[in-house]
Amino acid sequence: MGQNSVRGEGTRGRVPRARELGWDDELYDAGAATGAAQADAPEETDAGAASGTTTRAERRRGAGNGSGNGADGRAGHRRGGSRRRAKKAGKHKVLRWVAITLAVLILGTAGAGYLYYEHLNGNIRSGDRAGGSSGVKKAAPNALGDTPLNILLIGSDSREDEKNIALGGGRNDKDRKPLADVQMLLHVSADRENASLISIPRDTVVKIPECKGDDGTPYPATTNRPINESLQRGGPGCTLTTWESLTGVYIDHWLMVDFAGVVAMADEVGGVPVCVKTGVHDKSTARVKGGSGLKLPKGTTEVKGEQALQWLRTRHAFGSDQNRAKAQHMYMNGMMKKLQAQNAWTDTGRLMGLAETATKSLEVSQDLDTVKKLFDLSMQLKNVKIDRLTTATVPTDPYAPNPDAWLQLRPSAADKMWAMLRDDVAFDKNGDKSGAKAKPKATASPKPKTTAEAPGSFPVTVVNGTDGGGEAAVEGRAGDMAEALRGKGFAQADSTQESGGRKDTVVAYPKADADQGKANALSVAKALGLPDSAVRSDPEAKGITLVVGADWREGTTYKKPTAVEGDLPEGADDKETCMSIYSVYKWDGKS
Fold it and tell me: For a tag site, which of 156, 341, 375, 492 has the least CB within 10 Å?
């Protein structure tokens, strides 16, 4: 089960499956045990049966003799009655024995099951969900009360133990903090009918916010480092906060796997199908040293063990970081197809094997720190059809200060993708076209019972957050919007020099003033053309606060950007059937 393909190395020490620990062993043999119970009682039961036969004969004789010998008949009846009582007592002894045996079996099985459950829980390693504060709130539920599910998947290049060094090399990096080599956001729609998997290449320079590690170590914000370093600046929680700050999307959980974990999971599912258009050997060349060592023939191969890890790490042979992300998406698609084909969510044996391997291979955010929580999460994913899973990589350009090594996001393309995620718009075009299954519209929390106060009777603070999308803030934006509000009757509206970069525009009100504050905030939103979903409670707000986000850089009446299903930026949709190979790394399958 889930064993490392490196010779002499296991995943993290093999732990027996449930049956090997005794879970349900007795139940599998319950029929034999019951048969043994019946076999143990033959003397009483057979004796009772034999007595019954004799009694019936005696009764017949007694009946015959009854006409001539009533005493013999009555004696026969008395003997038959005592034997029937003996037979009944014998049956009761057997039933009691079986009942006691079954009770012991059931209690023993339940105990073993509990111990195994606790064993799985003991496998799980977890950390804080977030490493800093992004200010991003969970999306408003739709009309059915459902919200999207967002999970950040992280691949760590940790070399902290011998298994990972054997797989990834780099013994000199044993004491180095790991980098987030792979980062993908899995977005599952509120109705759980479609999903999107979005990657940011590891060498993309972004703003990494101020974070704090699980040990309390603080890390200052930075604007000129690649996103893979976010893992070094506060752990996976900081990587999550970086993504939230970048996208404006609330992320529910993170899952992180290292080299050994990838190998174990690939082995557990029996290999993952991937495809190349020509043979490939990602080897070291005269010009480019290194390489993953991946060597595959043309066509489709089910990779597992170390080969699966090589596939995920290959970059040179695929030509770029963008293409590397496409190959990783192909792998994820292949794994999902394999799990669904194996009935992994309904087959108890498969589920147990996966549970054992997954709990040992993954590190998770604290809100997923039990088997039950992980199982509940998997059940939310099982109904997403593979043909409704869209993979995408955010378009990038060379990073001007270091164009040969690093990348930067293409703002217009990235902003469009983030908006689609925030609005829960499907990345594919395969949704229901008949209109028979209309998507429930998002709704804000219930309207306040209190009526809004007169516009000029309460202050409104306006903050310029237009730099939330990576572009420079629009100069004077807060002042212009404050003036527009005053023109609409909000006489106490005023701007502040405080910066508050946000992707989306919000009107915040103090959490402590949940009724009147919300009513007043809704009146501000309505005056500006903002949707009710833009109104949010904020424990840090001192009063009604309008934060003008990167989605509203001009004009005084808000016009919500419209996103169409499947309308991805050019170059973003990257579902490949087979990967192309850069000429230097093509392999003829012979040498």
Answer: 341
Give helix 259-268 / helix 348-361 axis angle, nearest 10°.
170
- What letter does residue 589 receive in the DSSP assignment? S
Q: Could you tell me which of 459, 457, 445 has the C-alpha nearest to residue 531? A: 445
Determine the Cα–Cα distance for residues 425 and 404; give it in Å rounded to an integer.
35
Give the integer Cα–Cα distance in Å for 183 and 409. Answer: 15
3 state SS for 95-119: HHHHHHHHHHHHHHHHHHHHHHHHH
Please count the helices (runs of H) and the strands (runs of E) in the chain.
Answer: 15, 23
* Residue the block writes with tokens 């604007």: 223
* Helices 236-247 and 411-422, packing angle to 10 deg: 100
pLDDT > 90: percent of the chain: 33
Q: Is the pLDDT confidence value at 107 over 50?
A: no
Interval 389-410: pLDDT, tens? 888 999 999 999 999 889 999 8
pTM beyond 0.85: the answer is no
- How many C-beta atoms lie closer than 10 Å to residue 55's C-beta? 20
Report which of residues 358 and 233 the model is more confident about.
233
Of 189, 212, 158, the C-alpha closest to 427 is 189
Residue with tokens 């011998």: 162
Q: How far apart are CA 569 and CA 263, in angstroms?
A: 34
Among all chains, which residue has been given the structure tokens 């490939």? Answer: 280
As to burial, measured by CB atoms within 10 angstroms (0-12 exposed, 13-18 middle, 19+ buried), residue 144 is exposed
Residue 106, pLDDT above cutoff 50: no
pLDDT band at 93 (very low <50, low <70, confident <90, very high): low
Q: How many CB atoms lie within 10 A of CB 430?
A: 14
Give the separation between CA 301 and CA 291, rounded to whole angstroms. Answer: 20
